[in-house]
Design a protein that fits this description.
The chain is an alpha+beta fold. It folds into three domains: about 150 residues; about 110 residues; about 150 residues, Histidine kinase-like ATPase, C-terminal domain (Heat Shock Protein 90, 2-Layer Sandwich). The strands form three sheets. The protein has a five-stranded mixed β-sheet, with helices on one face. The longest helix is centred in the middle third of the chain and has 64 residues. The protein starts with a helix and ends in a 6-residue tail after the last strand.
């Protein structure tokens, strides 16, 4: 059963109960008043019957004070005429009315026989007397007819009319109550129906619909809370989806990392295995093992570098390395990094140019030294022999910009976006150079992220030259408060 139907039945039953209760209470009141008036009239008639043989003055006074009328019809033997004596009547119109029906003594005696043979109770539909009252009781005593008149019958008729009118009012009230109950039920249930529709959509993870907030009552508050709940739930689900995507990507990266790590370790292991097997079997050049010791040490060092870089990568990935920030002169930092690269610079006859604006930056010196070493090493290694490498710094309000150019080379544009991924190399050949592990730029990006640095690597293509630039920022030392 729908809620508006329930509301309608509830309101209508309440209105019906109230209407019938009112009707029954009014009917009971009418009947009580009627019974009271009947008892009053019965008491008056009994008093009149007892006072018939009493003093006429008492009878006249009693009838007058009780707001009733009494007519006594008798036959005067002396005058041979029917006489009527009226008590409490405003005029003698009753006499005219009675004389038309009673002309002889025989008429009176016959009427007495009829009256005495009938049940002596109050008459509810008696003919109206000419003085405005109604005849409610007739009785005979001593060959006289006593006729009692009162407004009681008129009062009783008014009560019946009121009862009939109230019944019509009850029917009209029931109809109006049904209409108003339907309107009220629809008015109350419509917002609830809309809320139910929206909550069903939310249960199906459809957040496109919102509940219309009407009014400041409890239903309006409920609609507002459901809209807030819908927004929060939608945001939570979106964040959950993003987390699932990130987790999925993380797992894929882990799989790729393990695959790349296996590939990186496979080359030195294969070289070592082949060399050791050759030495064992004393085949060809391997008859003199000492000639291959340096090669095996080099491959062992390569594997050690891969493992150490993997450990560094893992620690930076989970923020397990606590950096210690201190002020440091950028010129000293770059000079130190360049001095470590002197052997590569001389070997490849690199034309190194530097334009350093000295300033103090707040950094973790060991990790930034690793960044500079890795970038310079890549710049030199991937440059042609005799190429130019430039190191520039620019000072800004809050930070220093470091730019390292290696001229005469470019990175394929489709590889630029992947340059910071583990074990990724732009040449696609994955040819390993001395001390190379494929994790250098990945660790660089992790270190710079922890320094809140803005960094990028991009190609420069001009008419007369082309180059690759790696640039990153470092925050200047903040003045102490």
């Amino acid at each position: 059963m729908k809620i508006h139907t329930r509301f309608f039945i509830t309101f209508f039953c309440f209105a019906l109960f109230f209407s019938f209760s009112s009707y029954l209470a009014q009917d009971s009141l009418f009947k009580h008043n009627q019974s009271r008036e009947e008892a009053k009239v019965t008491q008056q008639i009994n008093t009149i019957k007892e006072a018939v043989n009493s003093d006429s003055n008492f009878l006249s006074e009693y009838v007058r004070t009780q707001d009733i009328g009494l007519s006594v019809i008798s036959f005067n033997d002396v005058s041979s005429r029917v006489e009527i004596t009226t008590y409490g009547s405003k005029n003698n119109e009753t006499s005219r009315y009675v004389i038309e029906d009673y002309r002889t003594k025989t008429d009176i005696l016959e009427s007495c026989e009829v009256i005495n043979s009938k049940n002596d109770q109050i008459k509810r539909e008696n003919p109206r007397d000419y003085d405005g009252n109604y005849i409610i009781q007739s009785f005979c005593q001593d060959e006289k007819i006593y006729v009692v008149t009162s407004q009681f019958v008129q009062y009783n008729a008014a009560i019946i009319l009121l009862q009939q009118s109230y019944l019509l009012i009850l029917v009209a009230t029931v109809l109006i109550s049904a209409i108003l109950s339907y309107i009220l039920a629809r008015y109350i249930s419509t917002p609830i129906t809309k809320i139910n529709y929206v909550t069903k959509k939310i249960s199906n993870l459809d957040f496109s619909n919102k509940v219309e907030v009407v009014g400041n009552d409890e239903i309006g508050d409920l609609a507002t809370n459901i809209n807030i709940l819908s927004d929060k739930l939608q945001n939570s689900i979106e964040r959950l989806k993003e987390s699932i995507i990130i987790e999925k990507e993380s797992r894929e990266k882990q799989v790729q990392l393990f695959a790349s790590m296996s590939h990186e370790l496979k080359t030195p292991i294969t070289i070592l295995k082949g060399t050791l097997e050759g030495i064992k079997d004393q085949i060809g050049p391997y008859k003199n093992p000492l000639d291959f010791v340096d090669d095996m040490i080099e491959e062992t060092n390569n594997m050690e570098n891969i493992v150490l870089n993997l450990l560094s990568y893992a620690k930076f990935s989970v923020n397990d390395i606590k950096l210690s920030f201190h002020p440091y002169h950028i010129e000293d930092l770059i000079d130190d990094a360049v001095s470590r690269m002197n052997y590569m610079i001389k070997e490849k006859e690199i034309d190194l140019e530097m334009n350093i604006v000295d300033d103090v930056v707040e950094i973790d010196q060991p990790s930034i030294s690793m960044v500079l070493k890795n970038i310079l090493e890549n710049a030199i290694y991937y440059s042609e022999k005799g190429a130019k490498v430039e190191v520039f710094t620019s000072s800004f309000t809050d930070y220093i910009l470091i730019q390292i150019y290696n001229h005469g080379t470019n990175i394929p544009q489709e590889n630029v976006l992947h340059i910071f991924e583990p074990f990724y190399r732009a040449d696609e050949s994955r040819v390993q150079y001395k001390n190379g592990t494929g994790l250098g730029l990945t660790i660089v990006s992790q270190i710079l992220d922890q320094h809140h640095s803005n960094y990028s690597m991009y190609n420069i293509n001009n008419d007369d030259e082309y180059a690759v630039c790696f640039e990153f920022t470092l925050k200047k030392e903040q003045p102490k408060k």
